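Design review, sub-item: ligand-bound model
Attendees: FS, YL, KQ
YL presented the inputs for the iron/sulfur cluster complex:
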Amino acid sequence: MSAESLVAEARSQVDDVDLGPVHAWKRANPGGLAVGTMPIYVPRPLIEAVGALPVAIFGGGDQVDIIRGDSYFQSYICHIPRSTLELALGGRLDCLDAMIFPSICDVIRNLGGMWRLLFPEKLSVYLDLPQTFDLAVGGRFFAHELHRIASLLEAAGARPLNDEALVAAIRVENVRRAALERVDALRRAEPWRAPASEVYLLARLGGLLPAAEHTRWLEDYLTAAQGRAARPVDNVRVVLVGAFCEQPPLGLLRTLEKAGCDIIEDDLQLGLRTIEGPIDLREGEDPVFSLARSWIERGGATASRYIGDDEKGRALVERVRTLGADGVVFAAASFCDPALLDQPMQEAALARAKIPYTTLKFAENTGQFQVVREQAGAFSDAVKLWGIA
Amino acid sequence: MSQNQQAHLRVAKEPSQERQKRMIGDHFDRLASVADGTCDEKVVYTFVPGNLTELIGAFGMLPVLPEINALQSGMRQQSAGYIAEAEKSGHSEDVCTYVKCDLGMLKSGNVGPTGTRLPRPDLLLLSYTGCFTFMKWFELLREEYKCPVVMLHVPYQPDGVVTPAMRKYIVDQLETVVIPAMERIAGKKLDRDALSERLARSAQAEDDLVAVWESARHRPSPIDGYFGGVYYIGPIFSAFRGTEDAVAYYCELRAEVEGRIARGEGPTTPDGRLDDQRHRIVVEGPPNWTSFNEFWRMFSREHAVVVSSTYTRVGGLYDHGFRHDPKNPIETLADYCLGCYTNLGLPTRIDYIEQTIRTYEADGFLINSVKSCNSFSAGQLLILRELEKRTGVPGGFIESDLVDPRYFAKANIDNRLQSYFQMLDARRLRHAA
Ligand code: SF4
Ligand code: SF4
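KQ shared the predicted structure:
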């Protein structure tokens, strides 16, 4: 299949607010649980290891009209909880047997509580991601959390967790991660062959599929994109930063590209990229603890994670330099506490390092991109001409 | 009521109020002497929910609570300028205004609520309890002060249940991270006996505070559990829990409240004493600080007394029996942090408010949804529906902000409250008929 056809198919699945791929999986796996996971990070191998399908939920994007969802949230709360509730109240998430709400912000946290009240027949789980990064303290607490979640899933009908299944799931996850990294590497080296708007769709598709199936998609895309007849374009190379939970509309990414920005790295799909590198399995170690350890030791710097004694923004500055990026585009969801509170510190670090940046705001259902086009165009021209913004 | 009658009813400050004023003044004087170098006590910045005041006190260190400074700036009409200052330097209009008010105050010379300068922190004690913003707030302050930060991650209670794993996680952090960090800053080991003594005093003050809260069961209620309540929680939620001063304050306050019960008196409001109480209201959500008295008047003018509020539980929920336990000093600190109101799952919050409405025989409940605070506000529309469904008591909903005057739409809020109280009146008449 051509890269274009793969991307078109990925898009139709990602845009399917009725969760067609999940229904298909359930038909092929009778009795298997589908477990919704809210952004940003829930360890997917744990869910696959109990024979369930982790389903990353990102609200309704620009695909749904919000009617009921708005009556549950004030105007000054971001968009993703209202569109997620809209989908659920309309029955579109009925195929999910459980939902997991990780501790990334107070909105997702409280949405988890609302879920318990609105959908009492469904399992609703809160996952407290530790913010203390000492293995013996935070690691142990997290491992306990993960065991607890596995038990809750078991009580809801999933298979009991066992070491072999989890080790196997982690190995499959690591293969997927390696494939995703190869796609990312192509995007960094030759963004005209693998533009960010395509890589985004391919990555996001992984939130709806078992890791092994996703890997096949990534491999197919990689082959197709490498063989594509495409010519280099003289764009600026940017890193897109938003600590993304709520996802921007695809139109925003395409607008940035059209305005002359090659997005060579982004933090759109943090669920697959929060842990940097493979999940390291150790002989004789409880694999649940290995999962916990990967969060403690390899969790990347993002807004919903406490940055202990490290300097704020250091990781971003280093990344920009390592990648040879020309600048950074910040795009935060409106009313997003993590992204918006973090941004001034990241901006300050970039300013100290003399790295150009520009800032945008969006909502998942933003439909007009004229301002983005102008702003990004001006940014890319300024960077190209003078190396500044 | 005429102006003269109002003035007549306006009573002199009670001794507990004078005492609190003295306590706060002395505390800020001590802080000022650290700031000007005449005293070398160590200073710890921390948050109200999950504050470890007894621990800080046991090390002889002085706490500073940026939320309290922000709300005081709001009351003194300085927050608008501070927020503008922070927004000018790149902070989003969408985020919590406490943070921006604090950063603006810092940029404007760090002059505290009593007009004296605040010292720089020796330690930022990030008690990460019930609010995501806390984490970012102290990351931002660390950028400014370049001082050590110690994180105490308090797990959330989604089911209203404290598990042994949660408690152990906090105890482990206290023992292996927090206390050693404080020992390094203080230059001495923790005196656990001194800590226990403080915790015993905390429990004593907590008993008296609960008696004050529960006095609102009486008719007329001798207290206002929201507007008056924020003054009552001042000492225990800030720098004084575990001190002799706090014990004396709460003992005095309790006696005053009991006196009011004996005399059949209501609380003092900005318009005088409110003996004739037509509405008994429970309030969920923080108050607005920039128009605090005007906001209060919107209630008292309508003869509405607030019999209980959730905001007065952000620094600890003592109604259900929790008291600091001097025999288990570290575990009790863990339990305290876990139980703060915003650390409770939404279903538990609803259960709590429902129970409060019943206990205090409220005839209405009101949600003041503040733009700043996702921790409180996300989900409040569902809280409204659930409570109405469960109790049959009508709820009101208004929107404002903590310290950003741009979001206190006075006429709009006043209209809404008037309609709400009229609706309660009409309902009462219907029931009486
Ligand atoms: S968009 Fe931001 S504030 Fe909203 S739910 Fe996601 S992380 Fe939380
Ligand atoms: S978000 Fe709410 S709880 Fe957190 S600091 Fe702001 S006002 Fe306080």
